[in-house]
Each structure stands twice: as structure tokens, then as C-alpha cells.
């Protein structure tokens, strides 16, 4: 029982580290500047 709990905690930490790494990578790879979207809702401008 105690060993299963240890594996569960380690697995949860691994998942958190992977998710955090993906989040940081996506934030770093966003283009800098102004984002312009034209779709069926109209035109939207967002500064990054």
C-alpha cells in the first residue's frame, strides 16, 4: 500500500512537470507584437 502511494505521488509530479514544460514552451513560442484576426465575428486586434 505504501509503495503504491509513493508511485502515485511520483507519477503526479511527473505529470505536473510535463504540463508545466508544455505551458512554458507554448508561452515562449508565441509571436511578439500585434495579432490580427479576421473571422465571422469581425476583426479583433490583440497586443501580445
Strand order across the largest sheet:
1-2
> Strand content of the residues, in percent?
25-35%
Rg of Cα set: 19 Å
Helix run count = 1
For the secondary structure, the number of strands is: 2
Number of self-contained structural domains: 1
Helix-residue proportion: 55-70%
For this entry, what is the oligomeric state of its chains? single chain
Poorly predicted runs: none
Specify the biggest β-sheet.
2 strands, antiparallel
Keywords: Membrane, Transmembrane, Transmembrane helix
Transmembrane segments: 6-25
Protein name: RsiW-degrading membrane proteinase PrsW (M82 family)
Features:
single chain, 48 residues, alpha+beta, 2 strands, elongated, transmembrane helix, membrane
What would your notes on this structure say?
The chain is α+β, with helices and mostly antiparallel strands. It has one domain. It contains one helix and two strands. The protein has one helix spanning 2-28; strands at 34-39, 42-47. The chain has a two-stranded antiparallel sheet with strand order 1-2. The protein is elongated, with a radius of gyration of 19 Å. The relative contact order is 0.12. The mean pLDDT is 90. This is RsiW-degrading membrane proteinase PrsW (M82 family). Keywords: Membrane, Transmembrane, Transmembrane helix. The chain crosses the membrane at residues 6-25.
Amino acid at each position: 500500500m505504501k509503495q503504491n502511494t509513493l508511485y502515485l505521488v511520483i507519477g503526479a509530479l511527473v505529470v505536473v512537470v510535463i504540463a508545466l514544460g508544455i505551458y512554458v514552451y507554448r508561452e515562449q513560442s508565441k509571436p511578439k507584437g500585434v495579432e490580427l484576426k479576421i473571422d465571422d465575428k469581425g476583426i479583433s486586434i490583440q497586443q501580445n
